[in-house]
Amino acid sequence: MILIDMYARCGNIRESHKLISKLHFRNVASWGALIEGYSRSGNVKLALQCFYEMLDDGIKPNEAIFVCILTACGHSGLVDEGYKYFNLMKNDHNITPTIRHHICMVDLLARAGHLIEAEKALTALDVNLNGCRSLLTAGKTFGNCDIGKRCFEQYVEQYS
C-alpha cells in the first residue's frame, strides 16, 4: 500500500495501478491510495473506474474513498455525478456524510458556477474556512461579489 501511495503522490499513477493489480490481497487502503492519486491528477474517469473495480473486489468503500470521489467530481465540474456519489454514499453504503463530504459538495458546486446552491449548502453547515474559501474563490472567478461578501460576513459573524 505504501508503494502504491508513493507512486501516486509522485504522479506515477500507472505504476500504482500496476502494483495494485499484482496484489493478491487488496483492501480499502490500497484502493484508496490509487483512487486518491487519480483524483489528485484530475483523472476522474479512472478514479471512478477504480471505485467500481474496488466494489467488484467485494471491498466496501469508507468515508475517505467518497472524499476522493467527490473531490474528483469537483475538479472536473461533474455536479450530477457528485450528487450521485453523495447519495450513493448515504443510501447504498450507509455512510453518514461528514463535514468534509459537505465541504466537497460546496466546492463542487462553487467550481461549477452553481454559486447560489453552494451558498445554500454552506449556510446549512457550521461554516468553516475551507467552505468559505471555495465560495469566495468561485465568487471571484464567476464575478459574483455579492456571494463572496455574504460568505465573508457570515464567517466573520460566526467566528468573531
Keywords:
160 residues, mainly alpha, 0% strand, elongated
Description:
The protein is mainly α and 160 residues long. The protein has 2 domains: 1-79, no CATH class; 98-160. 76% of the residues lie in helices and 0% in strands. Helix 1 packs antiparallel against helix 2. The protein is elongated and about 55 Å long.
Overall pLDDT level: 85
Q: Kindly state the number of beta strands.
A: 0
Helix content: over 70%
Secondary-structure element order, N to C: HHHHHHHHHH
* Distance between the amino and carboxyl termini: 43 Å
Question: How many separate helices?
Answer: 10
Which geometry do the CA atoms define?
elongated
* Low-pLDDT segments, ≥5 res: none
Question: What is the element layout, followed by pairings?
Answer:
Layout: H1 2-9, H2 13-22, H3 28-40, H4 44-56, H5 63-76, H6 79-91, H7 99-111, H8 115-123, H9 129-141, H10 145-159
Helix pairs in contact: 1-2, 1-3, 2-3, 3-4, 3-5, 4-5, 5-6, 5-7, 6-7, 7-8, 7-9, 8-9, 9-10
